[in-house]
Amino acid sequence: MNHNYIKPDNWSIIEEGFDAERVKSSESLMSIGNGAMGQRANFEEHYSGETFQGSYVAGVYYPDKTRVGWWKNGYPEYFAKVLNAPNWIGINVSINGEQLDLAKCKRVDDFRRELNMKEGWLSRSFTATLQNSIEVKVETKRFLSLDFDEVGAIQYNVTPLNNDVEISFTPYLDNGITNEDTNWDDKFWDVLSVNNEDNQAFIVSRTMKTHFYVCTSMQTHVSLNGKVLDQEKTVSDAIDKIEFIYKNQVSKGDTITLTKFGGYTADRNHDKNKLVDVAKKTLNKVSQMGFDALLETQKEAWAKIWEMADISIEGDVAAQQGIRFNIFHLNQTYLGKDTRLNIGPKGFTGEKYGGSTYWDTEAYCIPFYMATKDQNVAKSLLEYRYNHLEKAIENAQKLGFNNGAALYPMVTMNGEECHNEWEITFEEIHRNGAIAFAIYNYFRFTGDYSYIPEKGLEVLIGIARFWHQRATFSKAKNKYVILGVTGPNEYENNVNNNWYTNYIAQWCINYAIDNIKKVQEGFSEDYKRIKGKTKITDNELDAWKKVADHMYFPFSEEKNIYLQQDGFLDKDLITVADLPKTERPINQKWSWDRILRSPYIKQADTLQGMYFFEDHFSTEELERHFDFYEPFTVHESSLSPCVHSIQAAKLDRMEQAYEFYLRTSRLDLDDYNKEVEEGLHITSMAGTWMSIVEGFGGMRVKDDMLSFEPKIPKEWDAYSFKINFRNQILKINVTKNGTKFQLDGDEQIDILVKGKRVTISPNNLVTV
C-alpha cells in the first residue's frame, strides 16, 4: 500500500493533519459530484503548493487532436477529453493584507477534512498561523446538490483567534483554466461574456471545436456571527475572470462567513441564448432557500439513495468504509437521469482516460445499476449504445468492414472511436462482446425482453457481422481464427487467438442468431422492420453459424486448460510470487517490451470469460484455470481483483476472496497502484459491489430465478444488501448462523438458496 492516512470510519472519509505530500491524493479521494457535474476536493482559498485543479461538466468535451509520431490509416483523429471547466469554487482570503495560503503559513494545526458519504458533503477545518502572526480558525463545508444539479453551495467561516483583524473575502469565477491532460496544450474555451448583477456573476464561454455553451455562475453574501451583512462590494473583472471583494473588520472570537452558490448551466439542457437567465433563476431559488435548507434536501436525497444501495458490514470497519466509498462515488458519477451520458473510468475525479466511455460500463457497471436502481437506469445505458450504432458501423467501415458490421469504440463520447493507442484502438475488439453480453445480462436479470426487438437486435446483428468478417479460416487448423488482437490482459498485444476474444465472438454470433429467430417468431412487426433495415438473409446467418461452429480455441492437453492465446506456454513462466517486490508494479518499473514478453497478466482474461459464462464450465474447470492463471496475475488493472474475489468465493477460498475484496474496495483509499492523485477508479467500484453480492452472496440468475450461495468472511459478523429484482425489493442479511430474506413487494417470489427452492412472501422474514 502507498498510504494509509485515511481514518477508519463507517460513513466518512477523514484526513487529519496537514501534509502537502498528500494534497493531490486527498483531492481525488474526496471529490464530489451529482451526476451532472463534479469537482476534485481542491481548496477554496488560494494554494500555491502542488495541486490538481479540476471541475467538470458532464457531457462537455473537446476533441484533442491525436499526437503520434507516425500516422497510420484509420487512426482516430482525436482523443476526447473531458474539460476542466471554469472554476466557480474559488474564494481568496486575506487577513490584515496577507493572503491565506496553507503552503506559506507559519503553522497549520488541527487540520481535518471529511467527506461525509451518508449525507453527501465535504468539510474542512484548521487553525492557521500566518506569517504576520495572526491566528485564524477556518471551517468550510460544500456540496453539489442532487436536487438542483446545476448548482453547488459553499459555506466558508473564518474566526480570528488572537487579534481584531480586517478580513477580505474575494469570491471569483475564473475561465483562465487549463487541462492537466492535453496533447497539444490547446486553448479549450472561448469567453463570450463576463457580467454581474447585484451579488450574482456570470461567465458565458464556449468550447473550441465542439461548441458547447456553458454559463458559469455564482451568488454570494457575507454574514457576521450568523447575521447577513448588507454591505457594498468591489467588483473586478477581466477578459476571463470576475471577482467580488468584501472587506470587514472582525473582532477576535467573532466568525465571519462567506456563503457562495455556484455552478454550471449548459446548452446541452437549455437554449444557449438563455443560459444566464436560467442560471439567475436557479441561483435565486437556492439562495432564497439558504445554505442550511439546501443542505437538508441533500441529506434527504442521499438517504433515499442509501436506502436501496447500501451494503452494511458488521465487525470490519475497513471493509465497511471501502464498500460505501465505492457505492458513494458510483452514485456521484451517474444517476441515470440523462440517457446521453455514461460512466467514465475516472468519473469527475480526474482527466485520465478522457472521461470517456469504455467497455467497463457493460462489463462491470450495469449489474450495479440494474440491482440498486430502477431497471430503466440500466436500460438507458443499453440505449446509449443503440444510439451510437451508426457510428459503430462507421468505425468498422474505416477499418475495411462492410455490410453493416459494427465495431463499437474502445473510447468514446459521441460514438466515434477516439482512443490514441493502436494496440488498444484496433486490437482490443473484445469490447464488442461486452456490449452484446450486457443486452443478455439485462434480459436475464429484469425479464424485460422488449429492448431486444425494439433496439437491441440491431446492435446484436451489427456485432455478429463484425465477428463473422473479423474471423479468418485457417487451412492448417481447419478452424476459424481471430488474429492480431489484444485481450482484456493489456500486457500482451497483437496476439493470435486470445481465448476470451474467440469465445465471446462465438457466443455473440450464436446469441444474435437465437434472437433473430425469437423476434421473427414472436415480434413479427419488429422483425419486418429490422429485416428491411439490415437486409439480413438466411444465407448470411448460415455463414455466421459456420464461423461460430468452427471457432478455434487454444488448449493445452498437458495442463488441461484453455490457453490465454497461442504461444502462452512459450513464455518464461515465473509466477508473481517469485517476482521481487522491488520490481512491482511492473508498469512503472519495466519497459513495455519486457512486459509484453513476460507471462504477467494485468487483469482477468481467460478468467474473465469464465466469469461471464460461468454456467458453461464446471467448478472443476474453473478451479484448474484459476490455479494456473491467478499466480501470473499482477492485478495492475483496477478491474482485476473483483473478478478474482468472486471466483475465489465460488471456490470456497474465503481468505483469498476476502483479500481480493479488500484490494478492490480500498484500491484508491489505500492507493495500491500508487496513482490515486490522478483520480479514482470509478468503474471498478461497481466490481467491488459485485464482489460482495455475487462473490460472498453468491447471487446469480438461474432458471429465471434469483439464486444465492451465501458465504461470510471470518472477519465479518454479518452483512446485508438489497436487490431490486423485477420491481420487487429483496433484502438479504447473511450471518454466521444463516441467511435471512425479506421481500418488499406485492407478490411472492421463489428463489434458490444453495440449490433449494425457497418461497418468499411479501413482508415475511424467511431464515435459511
Question: What's the SSE blueprint?
Answer:
Elements: E1 12-16, H1 23-29, E2 32-33, E3 37-39, E4 55-57, E5 61-65, E6 78-82, E7 91-95, E8 98-99, E9 107-116, E10 121-129, E11 135-144, E12 151-160, E13 165-174, E14 189-197, E15 200-207, E16 213-224, E17 227-228, E18 234-237, E19 241-250, E20 256-266, H2 275-289, H3 291-309, E21 312-314, H4 317-333, H5 360-372, H6 375-387, H7 389-398, H8 422-425, H9 431-446, H10 451-470, E22 472-474, E23 479-481, H11 499-522, H12 524-534, H13 538-549, E24 555-556, E25 561-562, H14 586-589, H15 592-597, H16 606-612, H17 619-629, H18 640-650, H19 654-665, H20 682-696, E26 700-702, E27 705-708, E28 718-725, E29 728-735, E30 738-744, E31 749-753, E32 756-760, E33 766-767
Parallel strand pairs: 27-31
Antiparallel strand pairs: 1-9, 2-3, 3-4, 5-6, 7-8, 7-13, 9-10, 10-11, 11-12, 12-20, 13-19, 14-15, 15-16, 16-17, 16-20, 18-19, 21-28, 22-23, 24-25, 26-27, 28-29, 29-30, 30-33, 31-32
Helix pairs in contact: 4-19, 4-20, 5-6, 5-9, 5-20, 6-9, 6-10, 7-10, 9-10, 9-11, 10-11, 10-12, 10-13, 11-12, 11-13, 11-16, 18-19, 18-20, 19-20
Quick synopsis:
With 768 residues, this protein is α+β, with helices and mostly antiparallel strands.
Question: Mind explaining what this structure looks like?
Answer:
The chain is of the alpha+beta class and 768 residues long. 32% of the residues lie in helices and 25% in strands. The chain is built from 20 helices and 33 strands. The strands form eight sheets. Strands 1, 9, 10, 11, 12, 14, 15, 16, 17 and 20 form a ten-stranded antiparallel sheet that branches. Strands 8-7-13-19-18 form a five-stranded antiparallel sheet, with no helix packed on it. The protein has a five-stranded antiparallel sheet with strand order 21-28-29-30-33. The chain is globular, with a radius of gyration of 27 Å.
